[in-house]
Design goal:
about 300 residues, alpha+beta, D-amino Acid Aminotransferase, Chain A, domain 1, D-amino Acid Aminotransferase, Chain A, domain 2, 2 domains, 9-stranded mixed β-sheet, 7-stranded antiparallel β-sheet, 8 helices, 16 strands
Length: about 300
């Protein structure tokens, strides 16, 4: 099940240059390829403007620091971007491809090094920006909502990797594949203590007795940019909001639930393990927050 219908684009950004896709080459000894030693950000643009690009770059900077990779590449002047920062390079990619509404991926790896896992041999990071045209789901898909299943994959809340969007993404891929094999849209991952962590590609929210609840960062989740925006919106609407440990039974017995990421925005979660969540339809709080999120995007993209 695809999140969106995409059209492949031809111009990418690689290590300071805008290139035809066919001209782009990566080293077979890049530690991102060999060992998953890298991080990435997935962003969404609306009308040629990337939503909360500054927040994505701030999270990327923190991730690079966690891996011991230089973060000066984010703000360093770049000839391919007209002497501007990597922020401008992201915008140049969608401009060069003539697209306005896009899915953008920014990837940074340790770069080429020795054949053995030794980051100290990597002299220069690899920086890659790609984009694809994005056609969002129609409104009736949001009215239909997502279904989810419980994944056999566990999050390790004690691992620093749980808080990073690393290129070592195999657990997420396997969890998502499990869900799709069962005809579901998303997988719910628990952590080692049996608390709800997140989805394979999304953060999770639930509503119980009027309170909006989402697993805390300490539960072993990636702190999503959309998750952050939703919490801001909820508090601005005086919705009681909590970030804490969440038991699986609390999700199963919730009044409503939804998942978030930069591409989906807020997608109602209506069934879990074949059983309806709440009424089995998008709930009032979910619909309120989805409308408010769309408004926020419109305001920030002006």
């Amino acid at each position: 099940m695809k999140v969106e219908r995409e059209t492949m684009t031809e111009i990418i950004y690689l290590n300071g240059r805008l290139l035809e896709r066919s001209q782009a080459t990566l080293s077979p000894f890049d530690h991102g390829f060999l060992y998953g030693y890298g991080v990435f950000e997935t962003m969404r643009s609306y009308g040629g403007h990337i939503f909360r690009l500054d927040r994505h770059l701030a999270r990327l900077r923190r991730s690079l620091a966690s891996l011991g990779l230089p973060d000066d590449i984010i703000a360093a002047p770049d000839p391919a971007a007209g002497g501007q920062a990597l922020e401008t390079a992201c915008l140049k990619v969608i401009e060069a491809n003539g697209i306005k509404d896009a899915r953008i991926r920014l990837t940074v790896t340790a770069g080429e090094g020795d054949m053995t896992p030794n980051p100290g041999t990597c002299l220069e990071p690899t920086v890659l920006v790609t984009a694809r045209n994005l056609v969002p789901f129609p409104e009736d898909r949001y009215a239909e909502g997502y279904t989810a299943t419980l994944s056999s994959i566990r999050r390790n809340s004690r691992s620093p990797l749980s808080r990073l969007k690393s290129t070592c993404y195999l657990e997420n891929v396997l969890a998502r594949s499990e869900a799709h094999a069962l005809g579901c849209d998303e997988a719910v991952l628990l952590n080692e203590a049996d608390y709800v962590a997140e989805g394979s590609t999304a953060n999770i929210f639930l509503v119980r007795d009027g309170q909006l609840i989402t697993p805390s960062v300490e539960s072993g989740i990636l702190p999503g940019i959309t998750r952050e925006a939703v919490i801001e919106i909820a508090r601005a609407h005086n919705i009681n909001t909590a970030e804490r440990q969440v038991e699986l039974t609390q999700l199963v017995e919730s009044d409503e639930a939804f998942v978030t990421n930069s591409i989906l925005q807020l997608m109602p979660l209506v069934r879990f393990q074949g059983r309806p969540i709440g009424s089995g339809k998008p709930g009032r709080v979910t619909e309120t927050l989805l409308a408010a999120y769309s408004k926020l995007v419109s305001e920030e993209m002006l």
